[in-house]
Amino acid sequence: MSACKKEERGSEEEVKAFIKEYKAIIYTIDSQNPKDNSKLLENVKPYVNEEVYEKSKKNGVFTFPNHFATENQTDVKLNDVKIDTIKEKDNNFEIKYTLFRQLVIIMLKRQVK
């Protein structure tokens, strides 16, 4: 969304839907069936420009939630997105938003013999 042109600007609901779809790729994780990182990166790439993609890939922004969920046996789910502000800046749009996520801790039962 960082490279949108003025005439392409959508409604706040469209922006919210776009961000929710994009962030759900990153923040919806079943710790028992983690995502393959290369597939995750491939799925995220169409949502961001090349600069953001490379920087976030290098810093682990896209893959950290997957790693966290797997290591902590915690499922992660994106519940909602709240758009805080949308500002036009240099023919782009700066969007500030809040993500509402849910962590579900997996309790594995041991069988006693």
Write the layout of secondary structure elements.
Blueprint: H1 12-27, H2 37-44, H3 50-59, H4 64-71, E1 74-89, E2 92-105
Antiparallel strand pairs: 1-2
Please tag this protein with its features.
about 110 residues; alpha+beta; disordered N terminus; about 25% strand; two-stranded antiparallel ribbon
Structural class assignment: alpha+beta
Count the helices. How many?
4
- The first-to-last residue Cα distance is 56 Å
Average pLDDT metric: 83
User: C-alpha Rg, in Å?
Assistant: 17 Å
Order of helices and strands: HHHHEE
Task: Give the overall shape.
Answer: globular
Counting DSSP E segments of at least 2 residues, the number of strands comes to 2
Task: Determine the fraction of residues in helical runs and give it as a percent range.
Answer: 25-40%
Low-confidence stretches: 1-7
